[in-house]
């Protein structure tokens, strides 16, 4: 199927970036673009099926979404490529590395989902960090509980940045997204299979991430013998918007390790 995408020009390695659930390639560029600035990496940003400007075709399952991304990689990229993703996008990227490892040279997984079922996630139980009075005032009522759980760096500026990202890009297909999120096919069928991927991997998590946590991600590092794991204090599920400088530093380390692997 045809997925909407934006591709950067250049001679460096292509990094295909997959978005958070319900977000668009515009939001993904806002999240990852600063981390790649000043490098020779060529980020490409995709809209998943039913997200942004990509049509919702095929069944509303994560496996079908994954296969759509693999089909795009087969026809539009010179494999193997570097894959980056945040949250659901990182969940898909890890799934592609399990199912189609020949497509993947390395993984950058930011706040990755490990298990889809919410009650199976190991979430932090520490109290949230202090926040200024009214830090959520700009958020609509329907999003306040989500942001209260998701945001670790709790400031009005971070909230404004996240809200701008959530509202950017095409509208997508809300019905398809809801069917995907609530349906029996939301979890990938091989979610719990420990397939080893031996390319360069960086897993970056937020210490105050109340959506996917950070402990499950550490346990999953057994799948990545060349993996680096980082947990950032003062960061939650929207880590790219909460700690952009640290994300940039860790991304550049990952790119260096990927380059060293390529020239061996």
Written description of the protein model:
The protein is globular. It has a single domain (5-262), classed as Rossmann fold (3-Layer(aba) Sandwich). The protein contains 9 helices and 7 strands. By secondary structure, the chain is of the alpha/beta class. 37% of the residues lie in helices and 14% in strands. The protein has a 7-stranded mixed β-sheet with strand order 1-3-2-4-5-6-7, with helices on both faces.
Question: How are the elements arranged and paired?
Answer:
Blueprint: E1 5-7, E2 14-18, H1 25-36, E3 42-46, H2 62-76, E4 81-86, H3 88-99, E5 104-110, H4 141-150, H5 156-166, H6 174-182, E6 201-206, H7 215-219, E7 227-232, H8 239-242, H9 244-262
Helix pairs in contact: 1-9, 2-3
GO molecular function: hydrolase activity
Organism: Micromonospora tarensis
Protein name: Alpha/beta hydrolase
